[in-house]
Amino acid sequence: MDSVGAGAEILLVEDNPNDVELILHVFQWCNLGDRIHVAWNGEEALDYLFGTGPYEGKPAWRPKVILLDLKLPKVDGLQVLRKIKENPQTRSIPVVVFTSSREERDIIESYNLGVNSYIVKPVQFDQFANVIRDMGLYWQVINQPPVENDKNKKV
Amino acid sequence: MPSLTRNRSFSFYLLLVIIGLIALIVTAITIGDLIVVRDNFEQQSTLLRNETEGNIITSVQTIDDGLKLFDNTLNRRMEEAFVVFNAAYGESGGDPSRMDLDGLKRELGGDMELYIINDSGVVEYTTYTPDLGLDFQTTIPYFYEYLMTIRESHGFYPDRVVQERATGNLKKFAYLPTLDNRYILELGLSADAFTSERSSLRYTDMIEAVRERSPFIRDLRIFTTAKRLVGNKSYVPEPELDALLEDILSTKTSREFRDPARGITTKYLYIDLRDEDYASDMSLIVEITYDDILIAQSLQKIVTFHILVAISGLMLGTLAAFGISRYVTRPIAQISEDVDIIARGDLDHRISMTVGKEFGVLEKSIDSMVQSLKDMIIKLQDSERRLRESEERYRGVVESQSEFITRFLPDGTVTFANEAYCRYFGLDCHEIIGKSFIPSIPEEEHDLVRAHFRNISPLQPERTIEHRIIMPDGDIRWQEWIDRGIFDQDGNLVEVQSVGRDITERKSIEDENRRLHVDLEERVQSRTAELEAAYRELDSFSYSVSHDLRAPLRAIDGFSTILLHEHGPSLPKETVAYLEKIRENTRRMGHLIDDLLNFSRMSRQPLNRFLIDPTSIAGEAYDGLRGETYGRVIHLLILEMPICSADPVLLNQVYINLLSNALKFTRQRAVAEIEVGSLEEEGRTVFYVKDNGVGFDMKYAIKIFGVFQQIHEDPSLEGTGVGLAIVERIIHRHGGEIWVESSPGTGTTFFFTLG
Hints:
The complex is a heterodimer. By secondary structure, chain A is of the alpha/beta class.
C-alpha cells in the first residue's frame, strides 16, 4: 500500500496488523481501498503529515480523513491527535478515532482535543465491516472537506 | 468638739437643761418687771412734772392777779394827774410844742414822766429824753395798733406796771387821748414810788419756793414778753434763746427740749396773762430746767436691784437643779452599774432598780435582752462546737485524701498542706506552714504554669493544669492540679487552693495510646495507598482487557467471516459449521468481556445519591429494553413507588438488569406478566420485580448472585452470569439488601432495599 502513500485520501494509523488487514479488506470490498496510506505508529503518522523523518523532502499531502487508533507504540494516539489539532496546517483535516476502547476518559479527552468522530471497533466482524464501509463512504464521498484544493494539493 | 461632749454624763446634760430653763425664766421675769417698774417710775415723774408745772402756772396767775390789783391802786393818782396834763394841752390850743412839759412834771410831783404821742405812733414830746422819737409802729406793733384805736376815743386808759424798754426799770403807764383826738397823752410813774409795796408779790420768791420743793428742778427762770428776765433787769438773752422766745411768743405755745448729753430737759411754759383792759401783754414764759440725771440714777438703781435679784435667783435655781438632776439620774446610774456587771459576764445579775414605772419597763427590757443574749451565746457555743466537729471531720477527710491538697498565698507561702502533699514532696507538714514552697518545674513549662495562674480570675476562679515537676531525687513526674483562686471583695487574689494528683502513669498510658494511634494511622495510610495502587492497577487492567482481549477476538471473527464469505461455497460443510462455531464463541467472549468491564466499572464508580422517583426510573429502564420485547405479549405493571435516596444511574442499571432477567425467563410464557412495585415492611421500603417466568429451585438461591453463575441448563436461557452480580453489588453499595423468592414453574420475585 505504500506505493499510493504520497497521494493517499485516507491515512490509517493502526499498529495491529490483523486490524489493518481486516480494514483494508473491507475497503477493497467497497472499492474504497485504493488510496489508503497506513502508518504503523504515531511517529510515522506525524512524519507523514509534516514531511519529517523518513518523509523528509517528500511532498506533504492532506488526506481527506485520518483514521486513528489510540493504543499505539512510540507516540500514543491522543498525542498524535493533539499535534494534528495544534498545528494550523493540519487542524482542518477530519480525524476519526477508531479504537477498541470504550473508556469514558478516552472519549472525553478525544473530543476535548477536537476529534471529529469517535468510533468503537465492534468485535463482531459483520458490524465491523458495516462501520468501516459507512465511515469510508461518509468521509470520502458524503462529507464536504473544508478546502476543495484540487484533489488534495500540497498545502 | 463632738468627741468631748459625747463623753459627758447624762446628769450633766440634765443639769445644763434645767439651768438653762431657770436662767430663761429669771431673765424674762426680771426684764418684764424692770420694764413695768421703769414705766411706773417714768409715769410718776411725768405726773410730778405736770403737777409742778400746773402749780407754777397757778402761782404765776395768782401773782399776776395780785400785781394787777396793786397796779390799779395807782390809777386814781394818775387819773388826777391827767386832768392837769389835759388842761395844759387845752391851754396850748392843741400845739404841744407850746407846752412846758418839765414844768408840768414838777407840778405833778416830779415822779411821773410826761409823753405826747402823735398820730403816727411816735413820741413827739417827752420829759423822758431817752424815749424821745420812739416809734411804736416799728418797735411794738401790737401796742401801736392799741394806741391808734384809743386815739380815736375818749377816756382814761391805765396800763400795768411794766419794765421800761430802754432801762428795764419798772414803770406804771397810763394813756389819755386828747379831745381833738390828734395826740395821745401818756404818763409814766417811776417804780421808786411803789417798789416797796409791790415787792411782796415777786416772782423770784415763787421761783425759790418751787426750787426748794422739787429736787428734780435744777433751774427756773421767767421771761417777760419783752424777753427780759424777771428779777434781773440787766439780762439780755443770747440770740439763739432770743429767737426761741420770739417763736414761742408768736405761736403762744409751750416747748420742751431734752439734752441727754447734759442730763437735762428744758421746758418752756407759755403762760397767757393777756388782759384786754390793758395795753401791755403781761404773758410770761417760764423756763424750767429738769434734772434728768437724778431720774437716770434712780432707774440705774432699779436695774441694779433687779440684776442682783436675778443672780441670786439663778444661783438658788442652779443648786436646786443640781439636786434634781442627781435625784433623777441616780436610778440611771444604778441601772448602768448593773448593766456593767452584766456586760462583764455576770449574765445572772438582776437589775435591782424599781423606782418609777418607766424604769420598771427598762428593767424588763434589759432582762429580756440579757435572756436573749444568753440564748444567743448558747447557740453560738453550740454552733462553734458543731463547726469544730465539722472542721475535724473535714480535716480527717482532707488528711486521709490520697490527692494532694494545699493552700498558698500569691507569693508562694504555704498556709495549708495535707499529709499526702507533704509525703509526696518529702516535707514536714508542721514545718512547711508559713514558709514558701514551690515545687521545681522544668524550665520549658514555666511559661505554661505562669499563664495558668495569670488566667485565674474572679470570673474563672478554677482552672486545671497538667505539668511536670522535678522530684528532689531528680525523677520527673507528671501532675494534674485543679487550682481555685480565692479573691477578696476588690477582686484581688488572696489565696490559692490546689488539689492535685500524680498522673505519671496515666500520662505514660496516654503516650502509649497516642503512639499506637499514630502508628495505626500510618498503617491505615499505607494500606490506603496500597489499595489505591491496586485500584489503579485494576483500572489499567480493565483498560488492557477492553483493548487487548477484543482485538484478537475481532481478528478471529474477521478472518473466519472472510473465509466463509470468500471461500464458503468451496469449503466442505463440516468446515463451514466449525467456522460458524468459532464465530459464535467469539461473540460470547465479546459479551463476557463487556459485562466483566461493566461490573468492574460499577464497583469503582462513585455513588451520587439524591432524592429520585424510582417509578419513572423503572419505566425508563424498561424503555431501553425494547429490543428484547419485540414480537412478544407482555403485561407490564409498574406501580407507584415512594421517592427514595439513590444513585439514579446505578438504580437504572438495577432495573435494566432485573427487567432484562424477567424478560428472559418469561420468554416461554404465552403472556409474560411482569410487576414492578414496592411495599412497606418493618418500617422500610422494599422494592420488588416479579415475573411469571420459569423460576428456579430455592436451593440455588445462594448461587444466583455469583459472577459467571448459571443455574439454568437450558442454552436459550444462558447469559454471561454477570447481570445479577452487578445488581447485588449496586444494592450493597447503597447499604441495602437483596434477596429472591422463586419456585420452578410459577415465577421469580427479586426484593431489594436501598439502605
